[in-house]
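To the wet lab folks,

You asked to see what we're planning to order before we commit. Fair enough. Below is the target structure as C-alpha cells, and below that is the sequence we designed to fit it. If anything looks off to you, flag it before the synthesis order goes out.
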C-alpha cells in the first residue's frame, strides 16, 4: 500500500456537477452528507468512501462509480543505465 496521504485516485465530482447544473451544496443535500465531507471527497482528501455514500452519489448524479473516479498509473521510476 502507498504511504498515507499518497494516492492516485482522481475524483470527478466537479465535472459531473457542471454537466448536471448542480452545486456542491445541492448534491450534499441530495446525498445526505455534510458539505464539508463532500468537499473533502471532491478534493481527494478522504481515506475511504462508504458504499452507501457511493450509491447515494451515483443515484443523485445518475452515474456509475467509474464516472466518479479514475485511478492513475504509478509514475515510472527511471533507473540510470
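Sequence we intend to order:
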Amino acid at each position: 500500500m502507498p504511504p498515507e496521504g499518497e494516492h492516485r485516485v482522481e475524483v470527478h465530482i466537479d465535472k459531473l456537477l457542471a454537466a448536471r447544473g448542480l452545486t456542491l451544496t445541492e448534491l450534499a443535500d441530495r446525498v445526505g452528507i455534510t458539505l464539508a465531507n463532500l468537499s473533502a471527497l471532491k478534493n481527494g482528501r478522504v481515506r475511504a468512501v462508504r458504499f452507501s455514500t457511493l450509491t447515494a452519489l451515483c443515484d443523485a448524479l445518475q452515474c456509475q462509480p467509474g464516472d466518479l473516479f479514475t485511478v492513475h498509473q504509478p509514475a515510472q521510476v527511471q533507473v540510470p543505465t
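Structural context that might help your review: The two ends are 28 Å apart (CA to CA). The longest strand covers residues 9-11.

Thanks,
Computational group
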